[in-house]
Prior knowledge:
Elements: E1 3-8, H1 12-27, E2 31-32, E3 41-46, H2 51-70, E4 75-80, H3 81-85, H4 90-93, E5 99-101, H5 109-113, E6 145-149, E7 151-152, H6 163-167, E8 171-172, H7 175-187, E9 192-196, H8 215-223, E10 230-234, H9 243-251, E11 258-260, H10 268-274, H11 280-293, E12 298-305, H12 312-325, E13 329-334, H13 352-375, E14 381-389, E15 397-401, E16 406-410, E17 418-426, E18 430-438
Parallel strand pairs: 1-2, 1-3, 3-4, 4-5, 6-9, 9-10, 11-12, 12-13, 16-18
Antiparallel strand pairs: 7-8, 14-15, 14-17, 15-16, 17-18
Helix pairs in contact: 8-9, 12-13
Residues 154, 156, 158, 161, 163-164, 198-199, 237 line the site of iron/sulfur cluster.
Amino acid sequence: MRRYHVTTFGCQMNAHDSERIKGMLEDLGLGEAPTRDDADVVVFNTCTIREKPDTKLAAYLGEAAARKRDDPDRVIAVGGCYAEAQRERIFELYPQVDVAFGPGSIAHLADWLGAGGVGVARGRFGLDDRDFAAELPHHRERSFQAWVQVSMGCNSVCSYCIVPSVRGREQSRRPGEIVAEVTRLAAEGVREITLLGQNVNSWGRELAPGIDTEFGELLRACDAVDGIERIRFTSPHPKDFREPVIAAMAECGAVCEQVHLPLQSGSTRILKAMRRTYGRDRYLELVARLRDAIPDLAIGTDIIVGFPGETEEDFNATLEVVEEVGYDSAFTFVYSPRAGTEAATMPDQVPHELKIERVERLVELTQRIARERNAGRVGRVEEVLVEGPSRTEPSLLRGRTRRNTTVNFAGDARPGELVTVLVESATSTTLRGTQHALVAA
Ligand code: SAH
Ligand code: SF4
Ligand code: F3S
């Protein structure tokens, strides 16, 4: 049997796409290989959000090319956002690549690869050709957790971001289709779903006038599905947290007390240049409204350091907002100019050393705050969905709280079970504790 291996870069959307790529390859009769070196079909599902993933891919492709020289039957396929961004040049840049496909054309992978993963036609893809891949075969990592794609693409114009140009305009899946998928997943034993979209909470808007709906209504519909005990969603945009969304989060029992709320910058001037459509005050107001409605809410964020023109004063404004909000977790990025985006050609690009110096200060602050926030959980009993053995100490179990914090704990539960755990200690990223009880189903 020929075997495949998929290497995934980037966001949850890509991770979810990889499940579908794997499912399709298995349908073609291929088995999964444990490593790239053992695979006959090597797939890279790529990301191009910053320069770093591009560089990493180049190194991986170099290795794959060397293996291909020893074994010319080996197939190298490159999918995802980098493939889309470089669609005109990818075969010149990387002559060893056999198949390239964009994020919207996973469904056509079979046409290019052919039965058994042989008979490769050099394939091309396209945004014009895109499709929801939700109906494709899946290969899920864990039987009790699932991603559910609700939309594709993004209509925002954040000046630093390449996503709209590689994932296209926003298109929402119909509510009936989404709820049918969630119902089917629940029947298969899924207890936790994460709704996915580049701008997940603007879902539904362009279904009008045929369908008059909004994201809050979708949350309620998913909450009503029997067997779904946890609902998360990512990534929302602060501009789209309208009242019905907040009300649904507060009122739906299954919607977890957790939100990802990308800040990007705490300086209103920089936010404007980023075209985020909110300023510092509106963002802070939103945090207050969310916390008012959902008292135990955990808030995570994304922050970019060193956007063109960012002064010390702008950066300090970011530090202030971080301190004021008190994030439970934060992803911090050094601004990376992307070809074709508006910000890449802006004047006053911040020198690399200064970006590094700033990001280090920011990381120190976000870690200190996250440590304090987690320390505040010690002594509490939290509901935990068990995921498997602890990654660091195999004698312990690992799971996640409703607030999405990883917990390592002593206990005897099985993956997929909901238990309560007494929290005994904390770091900036994890909690530690002892199993208390099984939560009644
Ligand atoms: N659709 C999501 C995710 C976008 S990409 C959202 O809007 O939240 C994830 C994060 O990468 C962004 O939130 C941003 O913080 C970061 N990012 C995007 N483009 C970047 C760039 N050019 N340089 C550095 N970080 C970037
Ligand atoms: Fe990129 Fe902005 Fe769209 Fe997020 S909302 S994907 S940051 S353009
Ligand atoms: Fe990267 Fe594409 Fe996601 S660029 S962050 S994989 S949408």
